[in-house]
Predict the 3D structure of the following.
Amino acid sequence: MDSLTARRPITNIKGFNDMSTLIHNPQRDCVSSLGIPVDDLTLEDAIAKITEMAKTRGGRSRLVSTLNVDFLVNCLGTRFSRARHPELLSVLRDADLVTADGFPILWLSSIVGKPLRQRVCGSDLVPGLAARAAREGLSIFLLGGSGGVAEAAADKLKGWYPGLRIAGVAAPFIHTHGPELANCVEDDAVIADLINQSRADILLVGLGNPKQELWFNRNRNKLQVPVTIGVGGTFEFITGNIKRAPLWLQRLNLEWAFRITQDPARLWARYAKGLIKLGLLTAPLLVARVSEMMAFAGRRVATPESLRWRSIWSARDQSLDVLRLPPLVTRQYLVALVESIIAQPSDTTLRLLDFSAVKKVQMSGHQALLSLAELQQREDHNLLLLGIPAGLRRDLCRTRVLDALQTEEGDTLEALGSHGASCGARFSCRSFVMKDSALIFLGGKVTEKDLSHMGFVECLSQTARDRDCIVDLRNVSLLESSAIVALKPFLCSEPGQPGRVLFSGARVGVMQMFRMAGLGSPEHFLSDQGLFSAICDAH
């Protein structure tokens, strides 16, 4: 087996269609807005994509969300350690399409270095989509509102767009918390049956956030409608119960100020609280962005072409690949990384991503981290993220993506040595044989009896005839003097001589035992950087 595997091509590859099944597809043009993907779309783009979804029946029901500040505040809260509403955060992250409904979302995208092109709010999206649906022969179901608002909105849309098919209207009481939630299964079944029997192509849910997203999430497996859109208070705008701001105010992103004048007693307090909470969410993001700009300024970064996977070990039914990421990781590098994983799906290959050398990851590429998080959940991928340094963890907490990732403590060397090995004082041995070298991890309490019982010295001598052997001692709790006697023939070898035995990873106590035994210490000792360079082509 070749010990070094070049970057796998990402075009014309077997299994490339697997990419289309990812919600966080690396080719999806998104920006991570505080850990929630927002699509970079114009109003026309959004209408076209939703129309395409509506024409696809027989698969899962898809969700479109219109993200504004209320969504962020409701799901995130201001604590880094936990989300305010984990289920709502999960629903928004897994939405098939998310539009920027509000100027603050555009502002956040500029902070992370990938500005969104346009604000796409529900009150613009629904009329545009209704016009398209009338031309395409698609039907719409309106769910939500109160006091006949949904019926009035349906009548308005039919009047504006002749030929529009309204599949149905319903305004039931829906509960997402409290004692009434105990009856949600029976209540939801009635509503879902009504929607399914209507054969609607598009479902507009005007329940407001978080109710509309939570209702969809608990019914997504029951719904047969191809696409559901959470539209908040859009029905009120359509009927004229709430007036839109003049176009010149909309263009200045001051529609929120106009809305306050319509209901100042209620909206002043709501908007003031939202503004304060947005400031608390945004301040750490600004700190992270400034730190990123300073780290990347004038420095060379790794290109996607430099991405190299190292095949550490392979057997008939299992293999192990490792990639050590560079200190500065760009969005382009992360996208190429995700594509390289998708190109070779395998549930028998354990892939280790070593972040131990990474100082910064471009915030504009954090959407690709959500792609990695999704791949970690799939059965056809076995992926571990290792060794994320404390500084990088802080950055990923500030941008609200760390909680989505399954991370492990320690770096690749620790993972290789401990994976499947015994813990504590019990002896363990784990080996990886490569093309031109062999890597052996010893662990626990090592005695001459342990080495003799497994024929370690004889095997090491045999293996070292045609390749260098590296004996790593980082997981050794005690190296007895009797074991040092057994290892004495390997403590020195001629420089440049083929088939050397080298040592690495010895802790202070192990090195002290070499000194106490008085038989000499290993002459060729690899640092962790040297060892990783030997097995992973690190630079």
User: Anything to note?
Assistant: Confidence is low (pLDDT under 50) at residues 1-17. The chain has 21 helices and 20 strands. The first strand starts at residue 30 and ends at 33.
